[in-house]
Amino acid sequence: MWRLCVLDDVTSNPVTVTVAYQVLSDREADFHSWGWAMLGASSRQPGFLGGGVLVDREAEWHVVYRFASEGTAQAWEDSADRAQWEARTSGFARQTERRSVRGSKVWFDSQTTAPRAPAPPPKWKLWFINMSAVFPPVLLFNLIVIPYLGGLNPLVRTLLLCLCVTALVTWILMPRLQRFFKKWLYPPLQALRGRHKRRTA
Fold first, then answer.
1. In terms of domains, do 34 and 99 share one?
2. Strand 93-102 with 15-23, pairing
3. For labeling, which of 58, 88, 152, 178 is most exposed (least CB within 10 Å)?
């Protein structure tokens, strides 16, 4: 996916920025999509030379981008657009380090087409995860709770069922199921992580 090259024809003093992030274990695909979308926005800035999203070990991710000069790099760093993109990571990633290097000649060749973010899982897989999360609490509620609520209005019983089930699914069952099945839901992302680990071993 990446190639290393030597840019002998760069006459300016380019700046490479590397930003490290800690990403929540069940939000890696969201971060991967965000990283490439952010690089797409930065590519519209003057002096942009390329960039990439890399994963190192289990939860250390890096967004790397390069500008033709310190001035063009600083303009992007100080822009409101970049600040808005950075704010979007608050729900799934935390920045741990930011480094800028001037004049480095070794860089990732971004002249080829950038890889796309992993596609969302097939709908049948999402259906299976949702059913696995919803069916157990609905069954238990009907077997254990409903017999004691027979005197209540059907509207109230249905409301209680919905409140209990959606709370269990949202905060307890769904996050655990997504973590358990993440390799099955996002095999392209896991393949990307595996290739990078083999490359850095």
1. yes
2. antiparallel
3. 58
What's the domain count of the chain?
2
142 and 177 fall within a common domain? yes
Structure-model confidence comparison of residues 197 and 155, the more confident one: 155
Assess whether 56 and 146 both reside in one domain: no
Lowest mean pLDDT among 45-59, 133-147, 164-178, 181-195: 181-195
Residue 66 structural domain: 4-108
**Residue 195 belongs to a domain:** no
Same domain for 88 and 157, yes or no, is: no
Whether residues 9 and 81 share a domain: the answer is: yes
Amino acid at 74: Q
Sheet of 93-102: strand order equals 48-56, 60-67, 15-23, 93-102
Q: Give the tens place of pLDDT for each residue, 153-180.
A: 989 988 998 999 999 998 899 888 888 8
Q: Which of 100, 106, 85, 108 is nearest to 20 (CA)?
A: 100
* Three-state DSSP class for residue 178: helix
Q: How many alpha carbons lie under 13 Å from residue 140 in its C-beta half-sphere?
A: 8
